[in-house]
Every structure is written in C-alpha cells, then in structure tokens.
Hints:
Elements: H1 3-15, E1 21-26, H2 32-42, E2 48-52, H3 84-95, E3 100-101, E4 112-113, E5 119-123, E6 137-142, H4 145-158, H5 164-182, E7 191-194, E8 201-205
Parallel strand pairs: 1-5, 1-6, 2-5, 6-7
Antiparallel strand pairs: 3-4, 7-8
Helix pairs in contact: 4-5
Amino acid sequence: xxxxxxxxxxxxxxxxxxxxxxxxxxxxxxxxxxxxxxxxxxxxxxxxxxxxxxxxxxxxxxxxxxxxxxxxxxxxxxxxxxxxxxxxxxxxxxxxxxxxxxxxxxxxxxxxxxxxxxxxxxxxxxxxxxxxxxxxxxxxxxxxxxxxxxxxxxxxxxxxxxxxxxxxxxxxxxxxxxxxxxxxxxxxxxxxxxxxxxxxxxxxxxx
Length: 207
C-alpha cells in the first residue's frame, strides 16, 4: 500500500465514523508530522482537530538523567520527558465536547481547538506512551538513522532555529535512547510505516 492509498483509506474510515480519534506517532524526524498534515489538509477543517503533542514534552527534562546512561540527558524517547497526564486530560476534554487552548511553542502560537469538532488527530512522540484505548487507530512511523539525521538537520535548523553542530553531536545519543526506550512502543501500533531512504513501506497492517 502506497502513502496515497493509506491516506485514502484513512479518509474513508474517518468520514464514515469508523475512526474518530487517530493517533500518529514515531521517533523524531520519522515523517509523522508531514503525514499528519497531509491527512489533515484533505479532511474537512470544520470537523477535524489536529492536536500536536510536542508542547507536552517538558522543558525540565534536563534535570534528570537516564539511569542506564547517567552521562546523557533525557530525550523525548523516555516517558519521563512527557506531560502525559496533561495530554490525556486534553484529549479526553476534546472527546467530551469541550474546547482546549493549546500550549504555545517558539515556532507556533497557541490556539483554541473546538470540542464541537467530532474528529481528532493526535500527532507526536507522546502518543506512543498513551493508553491505546484513547484511540480508534494508531499509526507509528519509523526511519533509519541516516534519513532521520538528514531530516532533523533540515527541520531543526530552519523551522526551530537549531544549531547544526549540536544536532550532529547529539544524534548518536538520540538514536541510542530510541533503541532502548522508544522502539518497543512500535509494537502497539495498528500500522507501522517505515520511511527509511525516503521510501514509504507499511511493515504492519492490521487495518
């Protein structure tokens, strides 16, 4: 199944009411945000909320270190880096028909998401640590280390004003923590998409 076919399948399931809350997650620079945006742009904006979870990654994660690797800082691959209770509260609020105010980020202002919209797409790494029962379907994205680094450099230096030297220096640490803490979340997904070498391959298909 190609990307276009998967998007068409999801649009059909969403418009028919089979999927009302969709989770899209994966490690950094795996392609999840791009896919979520492509899907969101096709759907009726009057009926769909897109909740991005990056703002729920706590800025206080530098205060703790991974037990197995005390010389490393905590990346978003560890559950402790995420404000999961707050995120789950906001998802449940939207599902219950209540509005929420999203958290402001340096690259994106806060906005009101309307609880009157019946469809919710939740996108970001935090989804991998949330109870699966919150979602009607979850999709996980993965990519190889070389593709991840290429995308991270392109995104973080332009969109997020990141320093390329810092991104390069931290890449091995990020990948190690992904393999140790985050990769196991991939088994929870209904669909696993591998975008290594900028290809689009579905590895797990339970739709």
